[in-house]
Amino acid sequence: MAIRPQHLSRWGKRRTETICHLRKRIAQQGHNVPGEFLQGAAYKLVSGAVTVIILWWEARH
Fold first, then answer.
1. N or C: which end of the chain has fewer CB within 10 A?
2. Cα–Cα distances in Å, from 59 out to 52, 53, 54, 56?
3. Residue 4 DSSP label
4. What's the longest Cα–Cα distance across the chain?
5. Is this structure's pTM higher than 0.90?
């Protein structure tokens, strides 16, 4: 019969805490709608600006 080390329960507790923390972070992602909107708007703005620069470059050359 194998003897289990004492510190194993400490690792199990830490793992449980980490899983709970990750679940909370994942749940909070959906509640940050203004941040998601701004991030999406910034992405579209930069993408559009790059497209305009490429079109301008192609028209000049």
1. N
2. 11, 10, 9, 5
3. P
4. 80
5. no
Query: Burial code of 8-28, b = ≥16 C-beta within 10 A, e = fewer?
Result: eeeeeeeeeeeeeeeeeeeee
Q: How many CA atoms lie within 13 A of 24 on its CB side?
A: 6
User: Which H helix or E strand runs over 51?
Assistant: helix 33-60
What phi and psi values does residue 30 have, to the nearest 5 degrees?
Answer: -75, -20
Which two three-digit tokens encode residue 50?
């790059």
Match 């709970």 to its residue by tokens: 20
pLDDT 10s digit of each residue in the chain, 61 long? 455 555 556 666 777 888 888 788 777 666 666 777 888 888 999 999 999 999 999 999 8
Tokens of 16: 């449980």
